[in-house]
Amino acid sequence: MTSIFDLSGKSALITGASSGIGSHFAETLTQAGANVVLASRRTRRLKKRAKELKNPHTEISWVQLDVTNRDSVEAAFHETATLFGRIDIVVNNAGIASQGLALETTERTWDDVIATNLKGVWLVAQQAGQHMAADSRGGTIINIASILGRRVMGGVAPYAAAKAAVEHLTRVLAYEWARHSIRVNAIAPGYIVTDMNRDYLESPLGEKAKLKIPQKRFGRPEDLDGPLLLLASDASSYMTGSTIVADGGHLQSSM
Ligand code: NAI
């Protein structure tokens, strides 16, 4: 029996695919049968990852992409559409962390985080929407939000504000683009160990933070595979504007 999560014949673009969650998602979507383009700034890593994922059943490629730059976003979509004909799935995953208490956060830090984590998500989503709306088949856009868009902690003001905005943008775009058969949903992960946070999560402070998670463990990128495949596939055909939280219960705990 064919799986309801089967992505055979679909094409996907993943931003921020040179490391962490995005690099892992490339494998997940490939294994589900999709043709995948890995997009990010670090092309050497993309090339290496594309080579690792090469297989006889699906197409894997890569494009250089800076999500903060409109020309770069347009060029990446153009290249992907030329390669695969059309783009069915876009995972809006690229992001950067921010550190530092709000009283000391510089304008530069604020601008950098908002440019990548909010404007970048918007530029990629808009470009995806324009491609998908060009024919009646539509598509699915998956934005990567964060539980920090919902819960409060110190030292992450621009990051948390951007992630809260990504969830709301997800709802607005879902509402506007349903008429084009485009679904827009989000995943809000809890703490997943990646390059972005490994130093902190593996420190004594991180060990303390772990105890606040009801499941008493940090997540792995694989913990997001279920939400990803659900939102990427027709299994979620009646879902749009939703955010799936995958956090080991973290949002339910007190600080
Ligand atoms: P990561 O640092 O391993 O990956 C981020 C990726 O985004 C990298 O490939 C990086 O090169 C890329 N990137 C950054 N700026 C870019 C730009 N301007 N243009 C194109 N690519 C750019 O971190 P991780 O953890 O894999 O993060 C992926 C997403 O998941 C981010 O949006 C992050 O905010 C989100 N997230 C991560 C959590 C975690 O605990 N690791 C928790 C909640 C959300």
Question: Brief overview, please?
Answer:
The chain is of the alpha/beta class. Helix content is 41%, strand content 15%.
What can you see in these coordinates?
With 255 residues, the chain is α/β, with parallel strands linked by helices. The protein has a single domain (11-248), classed as Rossmann fold. Helix content is 41%, strand content 15%. The protein contains eight helices and seven strands. It has helices at residues 20-31, 43-53, 70-84, 107-133, 157-177, 198-201, 204-210, 225-232, and strands at 11-15, 35-40, 60-64, 89-92, 139-144, 182-189, 243-246. Strands 3-2-1-4-5-6-7 form a seven-stranded parallel beta sheet, with helices on both faces. Helix 2 links the parallel strand 2 (35-40) and strand 3. The protein is globular, with a radius of gyration of 17 Å. The relative contact order is 0.14. The model has no long low-confidence stretch (mean pLDDT 97). The structure holds 1,4-dihydronicotinamide adenine dinucleotide.
Succession of helices and strands: EHEHEHEHEHEHHHE
| Integer count of domains | 1
Class per helix and strand makeup:
alpha/beta
Tell me which CATH architecture applies here: 3-Layer(aba) Sandwich
What key phrases describe this protein's structure?
binds 1,4-dihydronicotinamide adenine dinucleotide; alpha/beta; 255 residues; single chain
